[in-house]
Specification:
Elements (H helix, E strand, L loop, with lengths): L11 H12 L15 E2 L13 E11 L4 E6 L4 E6 L5 E3 L16 E7 L4 E7 L3 E8 L2 E3 L4 E4 L2 E4 L5 E4 L2 E3 L9 E7 L2 E9 L1 E7 L8 E4 L3 E4 L5 E5 L1 E9 L2 E9 L4 E5 L10 E9 L4 E4 L2 E3 L5 E4 L1 E8 L6 E7 L4 E6 L4 E7 L6 E3 L4 E4 L3 H8 L7 E12 L4 E4 L2 E5 L2 E15 L6 E7 L6 E4 L8
């Protein structure tokens, strides 16, 4: 009788083990919950065309195409690696197209494949899992919770966040609200920030007749003109307009990153015959008066050029008054009564002591909401004064401090606490001008800032 041939069975576990090995590739499993895990292929089941045993997702920190080296920061392992590369290294973009290393931007998120023992880089590609936000302005950052908001979406960052300006590493404090950024990340994590358009500085010279007016830089900055000011603006080509009543000036500038330019306005002067000294009579007592976007002290007559000026009068518990004041005589008196929402324009007569309505000076009330906002000035609504506490800047000692464009004095310095977002500019002869965006909290305490040392000019 013919004996039945016995079948040989292969263990199911071995089959599954081999299949898993064959399906491994140079990409992280998108559904993996352990983001710190590195993918390692078992050499016994490695496919012939897979020439690596370790991979990670990281950020390009730097590269040298002459020495053929590249430095990459592992976003999950929080470690930096430097690899050699050559013509055999498989370098691709996110569409699997072959590219060269110089075609990859510093700060780009990439997938790296290499042999761990030899540290030989075999493949590097722009990660398909990464996302990019371009042209990000005024990035909202909560440094306490390490959160950032972009286009209404919340993201987080950690100590491994990399920031670059002109391919050089910078700190988060160096990112300015005037800068334009490219932000890159994976999932809800921000991994790198690149300053694509930085900022520079505009200093005014011989501009006393413009003090009290406004300056407009491009279409993004409209601020009051004060004494000894230093303006921060995004780099680029701009038309700068200055206005103070009838006195107008226009300058074309080219502002470069981290550079300071000076605008000499000595050619623009207001004839003394076209300057008025205006007395304001405002009730209730203690109401704030803003002219051209800046709060002013009106206890004494105020010097104003002939022409139009924006007026805002406000006090808690009363309706604000917004108006356009046209000065057309040397000594007008402006009377504003917030309680009744009324106003009059009159001039005082030194001989009779009487007052009469002026036909040369007018005050027109503003009703339009957009015009009301213009009257307030760019930053006026954001500032709340805490008279019980101070801001102290301790370092760098010897530098001149500018707060929101206005010169405050030499560091170390203390002044009344202003709550809100501010632009701090540090200037010192022989050193590179630096600026920082800071937030002062309403926490009922004194605030102290220490900034990095000034850098000598080359």
């Amino acid at each position: 009788m013919k004996q039945k041939k016995r079948r040989k069975w292969i263990p199911l576990g071995l089959i599954i083990f081999v299949i898993i090995g064959l399906l491994s590739a140079c990409q992280r499993d998108k559904n993996s919950t352990n983001t710190n895990e590195k993918v390692t292929l078992h050499p016994m089941v490695q496919e012939a065309d897979v020439n690596y045993d370790t991979m990670f997702t990281g950020v390009i920190k730097s590269y040298d195409d002459k020495l053929k080296t590249v430095s990459v920061f592992d976003i999950n392992g929080n470690m930096s690696y430097t690899f050699d590369y050559n013509s055999s290294t498989d370098i691709k973009n996110a569409y699997d197209e072959i590219i060269t290393m110089p075609q990859i931007t510093i700060g780009e998120i990439v997938d790296v494949c290499y042999y761990e023992a030899s540290q030989k880089l075999t493949a590097l590609s722009i990660s398909k899992e990464a996302w990019t936000y371009k042209k990000v302005g005024n990035l909202v950052t909560d440094k306490t919770s390490r959160r950032m908001k972009i286009s209404g979406h919340n993201y987080w960052y950690n100590d491994g966040l990399l920031l670059f300006s002109e391919e050089e590493p910078i700190e988060l404090i160096d990112v300015h609200e005037k800068d334009e950024l490219t932000v890159k990340g994976v999932g809800s994590q921000i991994c790198s920030i690149i300053v694509t358009t930085g900022h520079g500085y505009i200093r005014l010279k011989n501009y006393s007749d413009f003090v009290g007016g406004t300056i407009e830089v491009g279409y993004g900055i409209i601020i009051p003109i004060v004494k000894d000011m230093l303006i921060v603006a995004r780099e680029g080509d701009y038309k700068v307009n200055l206005e103070n009543g009838e006195l107008l000036a226009e300058k074309n500038i080219k502002l470069k990153r981290n550079e300071e330019i000076t605008l000499d306005l000595s050619e623009y002067k207001m004839p003394e015959s076209r300057i008025g000294y205006v007395r304001f009579d405002i009730e209730p007592y203690g109401a704030d008066l803003s002219i051209n976007g800046a709060i002013v002290d009106y206890s004494d007559p105020i010097k104003l050029n002939y022409g139009k000026h924006r007026i805002w009068v406000s006090m808690n518990g009363y309706d604000d008054f917004y108006g356009t004041l046209t000065i057309g005589e040397s000594t007008p008196t402006i009377t504003i009564r917030l309680a009744e929402g009324t106003y009059t324009v009159q001039t005082g007569d030194d001989e009779t002591g009487e007052a009469h309505k002026s036909n040369d000076t007018t005050l027109e009330q503003v009703q339009d909401d957009e015009e009301k906002d213009d009257n307030k000035g760019e930053d006026e609504e954001k500032v709340l004064i805490d008279n019980d506490h101070i801001i102290t800047i301790e370092s760098p000692a010897g530098a001149t401090l500018y707060l929101n464009g206005k010169q405050m004095g030499i560091i170390p310095i203390s002044f009344t606490k202003e709550i809100g977002n501010h632009i701090i500019v540090l200037s010192q002869s022989g050193y590179i001008t630096k600026s920082y965006s800071v937030e002062v909290l309403d926490d009922g305490e004194n605030t102290v800032f220490n900034f990095p040392d000034m850098i000598l000019m080359q």
